[in-house]
Specification:
Largest interface: A-B, 30 and 26 residues
Strand content of chain A: over 45%
Helix content of chain A: under 10%
Radius of gyration of chain B: 14 Å
Helix content of chain B: under 10%
Number of helices of chain B: 0
Number of strands of chain A: 11
Order of helices and strands of chain A: EEEEEEEEEEE
Number of helices of chain A: 0
Oligomer: heterodimer
Largest sheet of chain B: 6 strands, mixed
Shape of chain A: globular
Strand content of chain B: over 45%
Amino acid sequence: GAVVSQHPSRVICKSGTSVKIECRSLDFQATTMFWYRQFPKQSLMLMATSNEGSKATYEQGVEKDKFLINHASLTLSTLTVTSAHPEDSSFYICSARGARGQPQHFGDGTRLSIL
Amino acid sequence: GQQLNQSPQSMFIQEGEDVSMNCTSSSIFNTWLWYKQDPGEGPVLLIALYKAGELTSNGRLTAQFGITRKDSFLNISASIPSDVGIYFCAGLAGGTSYGKLTFGQGTILTVHP
């Protein structure tokens, strides 16, 4: 159980393009979803926390107009990287949890490469 | 932001050896989690610990929630090549944190056949 699906797994696009990444909880209702960014050989860096039906809470230093998060249902959250530039290239990972106190389960990540 | 102190940063061991890694924190956590991440994939939950002093096993893996609630360790017995990867500890605080995890820096494990 506790499967989280993230799509796409890899994106390569030109600078200036907007990219949408989807995160779905397949077998449970995710009251809270999280978006992380990870650089090579480093730990996960939390970007934002998203509760279903509410505005996302962004971590300090993360531009909310740059990284748009939508969590319209209990099984789907999306992250849109707007007007992406090469410095936005990274590994983006989502996670989801059900009830409060339950562990987060992670998607397989999206490798974003901006040319 | 805050990070847990995870050690060692990397380990190079021979197949069959036992492995131990740990995490410490200056603050208390209500839950300790251990994840493994393979290259190009998301972290996979290995063990979740919910009570101080709790000792939990998952196959060859054993993890403990420190009695002070400020530390945890993970042991892997009789390592095999597929144990290779990055292991992260993560702590979950209580209160209004909305389930935000605090992560360790990771332990990179290499197993030589």
